[in-house]
């Protein structure tokens, strides 16, 4: 009886996790998913430095910490992360083992911050927009304004919208650092795009959780009604098992 009960509870829990993953990837009514990427436009002007993005992942499921290196190809950003742009002397980068680090070791490297200089600039990806937006992709461009004597200043310079008709529209970021809307849409924030911070004070650029990000393990945890439904489901399974056990005892 104990073995059967354990198996049933395991299957019920597994079903909950699968359904939660499926719900996490659902697109809200009135929205659509778009591609997002960003890059650094003037990295070549600072050849003695390597530019890094952290926290960074390309995963759209549970976040898997990765090393994001700017200055080459655009970085595609997964869900649940808002990278901060860092700089590191190329000599220190080459001497370190950061390129070989993964998971917790990579997190510890950035937490220690040895040899790293943070710009305080937080990149806020956008993966969902109103389905009325004639946009299929969004690309942010970062520009280094100053990097010397341990002072690193960077800002969002422009945004490139890849339109549904195949055209590209490039817009400059205003002084307040808020991403401008694409042409032809009402001036309103996109569903999961909080206001973009400037580089004035790193403390003001603390990443905020995206609107679509669940808590806990990235794609596993849920909040509100979904979490309550999961608890009630497990309680129902337990009640059924207890009822069956009592019925068996009376029959005996």
What does the model show?
The chain has a 5-stranded mixed beta sheet with strand order 5-2-9-10-11, with no helix packed on it. A 4-stranded antiparallel beta sheet has the order 4-3-6-7. Strands 1-8 form a two-stranded antiparallel ribbon. The protein has helices spanning 2-24, 90-95, 103-112, 224-251, and strands at 31-33, 35-40, 49-54, 68-70, 75-76, 84-89, 116-122, 128-130, 135-148, 151-163, 168-172. It has 4 helices and 11 strands, in the order H-E-E-E-E-E-E-H-H-E-E-E-E-E-H. The radius of gyration is 23 Å and the shape is globular. The chain starts with a helix and ends with a helix. The longest helix has 28 residues, at 224-251. 27% of the residues lie in helices and 27% in strands. With 252 residues, the protein is an alpha+beta fold. Strand 10 (151-163) and strand 11 (168-172) form a beta hairpin.
Major beta-sheet overview: 5 strands, mixed
- How do the strands line up in the largest sheet? 5-2-9-10-11
- Taken in chain order, the helices and strands follow as HEEEEEEHHEEEEEH
Mean pLDDT: 76
Rg (C-alpha, Å): 23 Å
Write the layout of secondary structure elements.
Blueprint: H1 2-24, E1 31-33, E2 35-40, E3 49-54, E4 68-70, E5 75-76, E6 84-89, H2 90-95, H3 103-112, E7 116-122, E8 128-130, E9 135-148, E10 151-163, E11 168-172, H4 224-251
Parallel strand pairs: 2-9
Antiparallel strand pairs: 1-8, 2-5, 3-4, 3-6, 6-7, 9-10, 10-11
Helix pairs in contact: 1-4
């Amino acid at each position: 009886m104990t073995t059967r009960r354990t198996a049933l509870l395991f299957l019920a829990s597994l079903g909950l996790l699968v359904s939660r993953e499926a719900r996490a990837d659902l697109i809200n009514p009135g929205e659509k998913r778009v591609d997002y990427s960003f890059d650094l436009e003037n990295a070549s002007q600072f050849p003695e430095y390597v530019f890094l993005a952290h926290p960074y992942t390309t995963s759209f499921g549970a976040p898997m910490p990765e090393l994001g290196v700017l200055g080459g190809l655009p970085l595609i950003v997964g869900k649940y992360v808002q990278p901060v742009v860092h700089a590191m002397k190329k000599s220190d980068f080459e001497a370190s083992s950061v390129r070989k680090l993964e998971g917790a070791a990579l997190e510890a490297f950035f937490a220690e911050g040895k040899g790293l200089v943070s710009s305080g600039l937080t990149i806020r990806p956008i993966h969902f927009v109103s389905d009325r937006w004639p946009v299929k992709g969004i690309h942010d461009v970062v520009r280094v304004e100053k990097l010397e004597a341990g002072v690193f200043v960077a800002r969002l310079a422009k945004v490139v919208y890849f339109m549904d008709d195949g055209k590209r529209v490039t817009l400059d970021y205003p002084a307040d650092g808020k991403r401008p809307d694409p042409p032809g849409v009402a001036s309103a924030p996109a569903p999961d795009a909080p206001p973009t911070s400037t580089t004035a004070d790193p403390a003001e650029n603390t990443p905020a959780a995206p609107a679509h990000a669940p808590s806990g393990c990235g794609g596993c945890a849920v909040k509100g009604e979904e979490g309550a439904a999961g608890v009630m489901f497990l309680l129902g399974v337990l009640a059924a098992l207890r009822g069956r056990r009592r019925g068996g005892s009376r029959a005996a």
